[in-house]
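Summary for the steering committee. The consortium agreed at its last meeting that each partner would contribute one worked example illustrating the joint modelling workflow. Our contribution is presented below. We chose a case with several input lines so that the handling of multiple components could be demonstrated. No manual editing was applied between input and output; the record is shown as generated.
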Amino acid sequence: DVKVTQSSRYLVKRTGEKVFLECVQDMDHENMFWYRQDPGLGLRLIYFSYDVKMKEKGDIPEGYSVSREKKERFSLILESASTNQTSMYLCASSSQGASYNEQFFGPGTRLTVL
Amino acid sequence: GENVEQHPSTLSVQEGDSAVIKCTYSDSASNYFPWYKQELGKRPQLIIDIRSNVGEKKDQRIAVTLNKTAKHFSLHITETQPEDSAVYFCAASIGLKTSYDKVIFGPGTSLSVIP
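What follows is the complete predicted structure of the assembly.
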């Protein structure tokens, strides 16, 4: 059973703080993703990684960075949090090999920036 | 780039009735169309998917149809039950020859099944 975990379910930070969101998967998946979920906008891809130390920008990378030092762990970093980054953040992972791979999501982190 | 639209944004049906959610995509190269269900407070989970070489796929009370010419695909839920209440996301993906298949999600449909 695939398990994707995120470091926090709820997080409250102040404007200008540096924020780290961590995601860990235990299925040896090569691909990992960070999404942002906002009402009416669906799931928007922030960054993804298909290998250790590799990263690619998604559709909304501005204001975010990522780090993947180990295969199982993918971190999302908000260098200087702003109120418009208040949102639900979802991590996901998938395997490589065949195409059309199911994405397995973490439980999400609801971030509030005051 | 790919754009996925989804309608309606909210849908209420009586228990036992059918529900239909429709999506359109813009990139004719898209060839994989998954549907995810997200119950309140829970993570999205894949419920069914369809590939571009198939016009229809069914799994118990859930079916998906794909019209490649019109770039439309739809989710059909029959005999709806209260546990079908959730947000449903359609998505489109281009199966690349690289390791990653970029998935673009629609904005979601909030389905409420009224007992």
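Chain A has no helices and eleven strands. Chain A touches chain B through 26 residues (CB under 8 Å).
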